[in-house]
Specification:
The chain is α+β, with helices and mostly antiparallel strands. The chain contains 1 helix and 2 strands; from the N terminus they run E-E-H. 58% of the residues lie in helices and 27% in strands.
């Protein structure tokens, strides 16, 4: 409505294989519940990002160790 402020939380999602900024409506800015909802949504997105980073780290470590083992075998032959 005109004259009222609204609260949104944005995050990045993959859409059609590309990262896009997505705005998610939380509620009216003057509603105390909106602040709590926004904080909960931010926590959710941060936890998701941490999980994704951990998976990428483990994948990278596995690839590095495999590459090192292959290289070591070549050197030792």
């Amino acid at each position: 409505m005109k004259g009222l402020d609204y609260l949104y939380v944005w995050h990045c999602d993959k859409v059609d294989g590309k990262r896009k900024q997505v705005y998610e409506y939380v509620g009216r800015a003057d509603d105390p519940k909106s602040g709590r909802k926004a904080a909960d949504k931010m926590e959710e997105y941060v936890q998701k990002a941490i999980g994704e980073a951990r998976r990428q780290l483990e994948s990278g470590k596995s690839m590095a160790m495999a590459a090192a083992r292959r290289q070591r075998r070549v050197i030792l032959k």
